[in-house]
Amino acid sequence: METTVHFLERIVRTPQANSYRFTRPPGFSFQAGQYVIVSLGQEGMLVHPLSFSNGPHQDFLEFTKRMTGSAYCQYLEGLFPGDKVVIKGPIGDFSMQGIHDDIVCIAGGIGITPIRSMLIDLAHKHDRRAITLIYGNKDEEDIAFFQELTEMNLPDFKLVHVLQHSSEKLKTHQGFITSKVISTEATADLQSSAFLISGPPTMVRTVEKQLALLGVRSNQIRTDRFLGYP
Ligand SMILES: Cc1cc2nc3c(=O)[nH]c(=O)nc-3n(C[C@H](O)[C@H](O)[C@H](O)COP(=O)(O)OP(=O)(O)OC[C@H]3O[C@@H](n4cnc5c(N)ncnc54)[C@H](O)[C@@H]3O)c2cc1C
Q: Could you tell me which of 62, 114, 64, 119 has the C-alpha nearest to residue 93?
């Protein structure tokens, strides 16, 4: 389904990631974790899939883009309030549909976007399950939604940061997301949890291998690969 939405505002999330908010047309609905194809530019020549980074109950639509200097990013930066953008969707089966177990979310960098949408949704629904978020970034300043995730309004929520470069301020794991980090930090039983992994394809592949080392079955895992990043 093709829908025209109107640009509302830009919110700076990190030095390299901005959120862009748009109007939500009446009747437009999506599931947390889904994405749309967002066409920009003359005759919609600049096209990328972008995940919703906000909750499905909120009265706006939000995407959060890693800023790479591409023509697509430059176009996003040039939007004025009221400008029209065409979106196609919602698309995708990276969602929490049919998941009744405890959840371990694993996000790499900008891969946090669909997972943030899910967490907002879970908080909105007063979900009481054990939920762990393991969030990998290069540096402390790259952590998007830091404050919000720290204060996430869920009764059994644990946030674990993994940074490639150590931080003086934050208690984090240093390096990459390994089987050791997952097994020591996940609050629920690994064999009966659902795993939601989102990030660049290389990161998703690496985490899948780490989960296999822990005996996690592939039917416990759902993935969202942000093709377009290495
Ligand atoms: C299902 C799905 C959901 C996704 N959701 C998101 C999301 O929520 N947020 C998000 O950010 N991405 C998301 N992506 C990835 C997104 O669709 C793009 O592929 C990605 O953002 C790269 O687009 P780009 O315009 O930045 O770079 P492109 O123009 O596609 O170029 C690819 C790479 O080349 C480099 N590059 C290009 N132009 C320049 C330049 N002028 N200067 C320097 N370097 C340059 C950049 O490193 C860039 O990453 C998603 C992908 C999929 C498949």
A: 114
